Amino acid sequence: MSRKARKNRMNEDRGLALPAPLTALLAVVALAGVFVVWLSSRCENLDQAIREMQVKYEHLEQMARQEEYKLTLMQSPQNLQALLDRHGLPMVWPDERNIIRVDTHLYRQFARRPDDIPDLELAFRPEGGTGDVPR
Amino acid sequence: MIHERYFGRGFLVVSASLVVWGALGAKLFSLHLGDNEDLRERARRMHQVQREVKAPRGRITDRTGTILAMDLVTQDVIADPMVIQDRGQVPFVSFHAARLLDLDRAALDSRLSRPGRRFEYVSRHVPRDRAEMVRDLDLVGLRFEPQLTRHYPLGHLASHVVGFTNLEGVGSLGVEQALDPRLRPVSGLVHLIRDGRGREVPGQRLVNLPERSGASVELTLDATIQHMVEQALDRGMEDFNARGAWAVVLSVRTGEVLAMASRPGFDLNRFRASSPEERMNRVIGYTYEPGSTFKAATLALALDHGVVRPDDVFFCEHGRWFYGGRSLRDYSPHGDLTVADIIQKSSNIGTAKVLLRLGPERLYQGLLGFGVARPTGIRLPAEESGVLAPPAGWSGISLTRIAIGHETTVTALQIATMMNAIANDGLVVRPQILRRVVDDAGRELERFEPELAGRAIRPDTAALMRHLLARVTEPGGTATRARVPGYRVAGKTGTAQKVIDGRYSDRLNIASFVGFLPVDRPEVTIAVVLDEPGPVHRTGGRVAAPLFAQIAEPLMRYLDVVPDPEPATASARAVRPPGAGW
Q1: Cα–Cα distance between A48 and B324 in angstroms, integer?
Q2: A80 contacts in chain B (CB < 8 Å)
Q3: Which terminus of chain B is less hemmed in, N or C, by CB atoms within 10 Å?
Q4: What is the domain extent for residue A40?
């Protein structure tokens, strides 16, 4: 009985080996795939962030408009008048004799030397007036 | 090797798979390459969205930047009654919504209880902060829709000038109407693609037309001056029980309108509740016989043509003069008066006699030069032009009547422009209400410069008239109540009977005063008109002149106009030639 020759599995051809360039190519493709997925996810996040900022911007813009509106209401002549009346502060224009008009050119010229300003104030103090100089 | 035993079974599985995959393939083939236009259209509709992006209408501001009109985002609060009813939340929702939105709870409760309804406005145009309070409660069945709505922060102030937009957002009065194409925004259009989760696919916008806000308009008005004028008019309406009152303030050199007010007025935020009479801007839209204020122009023309001099004397017939078969009367009887005194005393007879020397053609042409009988061109809608017939259509007495401001009609703005020409060395400047138009980035799109309409009289005649008109507010004149401490005021009163059913009324009249100050360096011209004042005081000197002073006094302080250096009387004397009789 002939002995069946045992096959040496070490010498057996194990099939197609993956060549190095192909491996590299596959690796590159895989990496590119991962990069694309990452990029897509990043874009999506940015898109979301932009959207949120847009909403926030619109919200802030609306708030700014609302505040501008309120400020206009508060600063309106009617409102100021109503507030003065409510607090019992009847405002009248100052008497012409209490107004001191300073030549702005002259004042600026003196104002370059701060030490001169007190003298200037004295110079413009009216008789019986408070001596206040409009600044 | 498949065992024979399983061969049949294997064949069956493979065949079934082939049939299934074949069918799927066929369907795929049919879907992709077949005629499925309706399906494609459905898919397109599901993925593509077209959205209109609204932009705000431009603002209207005064010359200092105070906002007179602007768009604000408000919220419409909308309910789904069926959802609220299903959850048994009607009392809870109506209680809180009514409390926060100032609504009648019972009415809201009833609206939310209507069966079978899926849509009900709870409240429209709710301010943002108020809507946020409702939203924070997270009430079931309520949703919020943002809306851009027009708001007028100063309400009544300058309402006739600013105007309003109707529900479609179209300007319907005043500047809102006149500059509607400029103020109107351009809506944007976005055509985008959505993914399966309804989110926009980045970078896939098929159409992206950006929205554009409307341009903003800056007016020549000053809100503070406007407030002064409106306060004075309100007092005048109350004190003199007038049917209407209106006033305009012009800057002498530029013709800029610093204030323009009309009473009765209305609140721009509630314009729907106002009547057409309240909405009428009487300064430009109401024509009347100007009466004696017209004498400022007619006598200026007589002096300009040299047909009379200020010290020429005319006999004023002691108050009643028959001419052309009709009588002409003076308010107070006078004998001999110089031309200067005719102006000061406002003698109808004296004025008529002076103008007879000038003649109809020169009077007519001169008045046209002052801007009578044609719109001033202020660029506001519904401006009336007034009436002045050409001399060919005049009767035998027309000249004597036109001379004193009858048989002609004008608007208050025309009469103010006329007086402004006298203040401005005889130059007629076109009154203007618009200063500039800027886009939303602040770039200037258009600037409105002062426009010269022509010369009405020579500068020396204008200077002479300024001082003759200043005598009207001095003792002995008809408008001593128009005086302003510290400033010489020039002007002319007018009291014209109203025409009722084709006849002059003895009871109803229009009282006016138009003047400028300071006389030697005029800064502002002010015209004040009261309709049907009474019952006690009805003349321009009694009712309109005090209102003029009430406006002019704070105005001089506000504009920081330096008072006249000398006492008024000394200054007046200084300009009179030696030996002058006036």
Answers
A1: 89
A2: none
A3: N
A4: 21-90
